[in-house]
From TrEMBL:
<dbReference type="InterPro" id="IPR036282">
    <property type="entry name" value="Glutathione-S-Trfase_C_sf"/>
</dbReference>
<dbReference type="InterPro" id="IPR036249">
    <property type="entry name" value="Thioredoxin-like_sf"/>
</dbReference>
<feature type="domain" description="GST C-terminal">
    <location>
        <begin position="152"/>
        <end position="276"/>
    </location>
</feature>
<protein>
    <submittedName>
        <fullName>Glutathione S-transferase</fullName>
    </submittedName>
</protein>
<dbReference type="InterPro" id="IPR040079">
    <property type="entry name" value="Glutathione_S-Trfase"/>
</dbReference>
<dbReference type="InterPro" id="IPR016639">
    <property type="entry name" value="GST_Omega/GSH"/>
</dbReference>
<dbReference type="InterPro" id="IPR047047">
    <property type="entry name" value="GST_Omega-like_C"/>
</dbReference>
<feature type="region of interest" description="Disordered">
    <location>
        <begin position="306"/>
        <end position="336"/>
    </location>
</feature>
<dbReference type="Pfam" id="PF13410">
    <property type="entry name" value="GST_C_2"/>
</dbReference>
<dbReference type="InterPro" id="IPR010987">
    <property type="entry name" value="Glutathione-S-Trfase_C-like"/>
</dbReference>
């Protein structure tokens, strides 16, 4: 499968299934604990957002999670981490089966995160940007006690503006660089990416978090790109002006979040590296997965508390990760 189209700039296929699961069921799917299954891969930054938000809000029991393996082929993500290579609830080997159950002629990306309706086995949505917003708003009745306000009404306009720029220039920007098919497309993506990282550096020099004085949806969306930066984007995607560890403000900000319950304890660096270096065969034809970088720095003191702010606002941190959802030993500096 080719990810780089020679002679062309990268353009993401953004044709998502936008059906929503809501408290009032206005799209045909009502919020109901245990009815749906959130399918993710810990390798994917878009899925990583959903994993973090779900944990911060305490939705583990209301919205059970299936974790696909870190690699996929041209057909789809596979449940090769589960006994027999099948998801124990959905009974399928590939996420593709749930997409085709909804639409036998489905011809778009088989992406994660996706939410599947368990009774029918059909995908409801893969609209990653809306999924986490709806976790905050539509699933509010099932939030844990002390859940943070990740999308507070007074800050939504600013959060949306920050998210739009971060998505365009950073989240998707690293892909525009990595999958560029011409020197000009790569150089443009590279310049835009680091220009925006410089703007974020300036913003975060005086503020602990991106919007307001607590963690919001905006921090979650930036974090999932930053946490992958040195492991894959710096080398594999040629985003190499500097490593994250060489950008002091962003490095401290990322470590602050990583060390906050709900962030670093969801990150599997082994899955991240295996996905990018094994799946993108046209970029890395040898299939060699790098041994580095050294992960111990993620636990170094960050000093960001001096800027003030309260990570969870009037809420509280989430409790320990459930054993069945813990990142495997050795895959993260936080794993036992």
């Amino acid at each position: 499968m080719s990810y780089v189209q020679r002679g062309a700039a990268y353009a993401r296929d953004s044709r998502y299934i936008t059906t929503r699961i809501t408290a009032d069921g206005r799209d045909g799917f009502v919020v109901e604990p245990g009815r749906y299954r959130l399918v993710v891969s810990r390798a994917c930054p878009w899925a990583g957002r959903a994993v973090i938000v779900r944990r911060l809000l305490g939705l583990e029991k209301a919205l059970p999670m299936a974790v696909a393996g870190p690699t996929h082929d041209g057909r789809s993500w596979r449940f090769d981490l589960d006994p027999g290579g099948r998801d124990p609830v959905l009974g399928i080997e590939r996420l593709q089966e749930a997409y085709l159950a909804r639409d036998p002629g489905y011809d778009r990306g088989i992406t994660v995160p996706a939410i599947v309706d368990v009774p029918t086995g059909k995908v409801v949505t893969n609209d990653f940007a809306q999924i986490t917003i709806d976790m905050s708003l539509e699933w509010a009745a099932y939030h844990r006690e002390g859940a943070p306000a990740l999308y507070p009404p007074a800050l939504r306009a600013e959060i949306d503006a920050v998210n739009e720029a971060v998505y365009e220039e950073v989240n998707n920007g690293v892909y525009r660089a990595g999958f560029a098919g011409t020197q000009e497309a790569y150089s443009s993506a590279y310049g835009r990416l680091f220009a925006h990282l410089d703007r974020l550096t300036e913003r975060l020099s005086a503020s602990r978090y991106l919007v307001g004085d607590t963690i919001t949806e905006a921090d979650v969306r930036l974090f999932t790109t930053l946490v992958r930066f040195d492991a894959v984007y710096h080398g594999h995607f040629k985003c190499n002006r500097q490593k994250l560890a060489e950008m002091p403000v962003l490095w401290a900000y990322a470590r602050d979040l990583f060390q906050t319950p709900g962030f670093g304890d969801t990150v599997d660096f082994d899955h991240i590296k295996r996905h990018y270096y094994l799946v993108h065969e046209d970029i890395n034809p040898s299939g060699i997965v790098p041994c580095g970088p050294d992960l111990s720095g993620w636990l170094d003191p960050h000093g960001r508390a001096a800027l003030g702010g309260r990570p969870f606002g009037d809420g509280t941190p989430p409790g320990p990760v459930a054993p069945e959802e813990a990142v495997p030993s050795g895959s993260s500096p936080l794993s036992p």
